[in-house]
Amino acid sequence: MGKLDFSELIAIIGLIIAYIIAIILIVQIIRALFGGSWKIEEIILALVVFNLTITFGIGSYLISLNNKISDVNTKIQGHIQWHKGKDNSKK
Questions:
Q1: Looking at the domain assignment, is residue 35 inside a domain?
Q2: Positions in the chain short of pLDDT 70
Q3: Rounded Cα gap, residues 31 and 38, in angstroms
Q4: CA 80 – CA 68 distance, rounded (Å)
Q5: How far is CA 7 from CA 13, 17, 65, in A?
Q6: Domains in the chain, number
Q7: Looking at the domain assignment, is residue 21 inside a domain?
Q8: pTM metric for this prediction
Q9: How wide is the angle at C-alpha 57 spanned by C-alphas 24 and 48, nearest 5°?
Q10: Residue 91 resides in a domain
Q11: Which of these, 13, 2, 3, lies nearest to 58 by C-alpha position?
């Protein structure tokens, strides 16, 4: 397992928070169906917060994925340049 960069760390933290919010929401929705502890407005607001948390988590994951893809692209480009006989070493 490699070193985590900042965007991967944010993605992991965002997903952990999203899972915690999801568990709370599921419990509160079940409780609301059987007599309720939260009002419907509070449940809807919690669903919006859950949606935003998931969105930021996925966004951070996509940023880290883009960084990995660009690293692979750089390696492939260097390899192709090597086959063409061009020196790609950094001096």
A1: yes
A2: 1-2, 4, 73, 86-91
A3: 8
A4: 19
A5: 10, 15, 9
A6: 1
A7: yes
A8: 0.56
A9: 45
A10: no
A11: 13
